[in-house]
Design goal:
Layout: H1 2-20, E1 29-31, E2 37-39, E3 48-53, H2 62-73, E4 79-84, H3 95-106, H4 125-134, E5 144-147, E6 154-157, H5 166-172
Parallel strand pairs: 3-4
Antiparallel strand pairs: 1-2, 3-5, 5-6
């Protein structure tokens, strides 16, 4: 009886600690393209590569590298999250079309949020926070933001920077958990 109470207290404390670890930057909830909840606080403590995407952009080929990185480094903690946007007039019309395109064309398994705005006054609050943290709002599709596991440190990488470019990887690799 005492042991199970002690375990319950430990579990409750662990839950409170992880909720407390969620920084203001990560306190955002979205839905995925499939309508499932996407809570960024659930990614606290991990490196998160955030990308604004568009299905009809010349940089759409970066999906291949993003998915490959997600598969390669997921076990080491990396999260990749896509945010489709039609701010640059290159996105499909519906979340279903975007989801089908990502799944059927690039076999995307990393989370993709529902389409939203990522720039200007109409940008979703998360992208406003990313722009504020880095001083860089997306100028085009496939802008990348790397959020450190501390949930506060954020690096911005412009569209032409490939997801696996040395300048991005030099920031990401020290954030990854060692392989076993």
């Amino acid at each position: 009886m005492v042991r199970s109470s002690f375990c319950a207290v430990l579990l409750m404390t662990a839950g409170v600690a992880s909720a407390a670890d969620c920084t203001a930057l990560l306190k955002h909830e979205f839905k995925t393209l499939q309508g499932q909840p996407l809570n960024l606080c659930g990614m606290a403590g991990k490196p998160i590569l955030v990308v604004n995407t568009a299905s009809k952009c010349g940089y759409t080929r970066q999906f291949e590298t993003l998915e490959a990185m997600y598969k390669q480094y997921k076990a080491q903690g990396l999260m990749v999250v896509g945010f489709p946007s039609n701010d640059f007039k290159q996105e499909l019309a519906s979340n279903k079309e975007i989801g089908d395109f990502c799944k059927l064309t690039y076999f995307i398994e990393f989370p993709m949020a529902e389409a939203s705005s990522v720039k200007g006054e109409s940008a979703n609050p998360f992208f406003k926070a990313l722009a504020l943290a880095t001083g860089e709002a997306p100028k085009w599709n496939f802008q990348k933001y790397l959020i450190a596991p501390d949930g506060k440190t954020v690096y911005a990488f412009s569209t032409p920077t490939e997801p696996d470019a040395p300048e991005l990887m030099s920031k990401l690799k020290p954030m990854l958990k060692p392989t076993k």
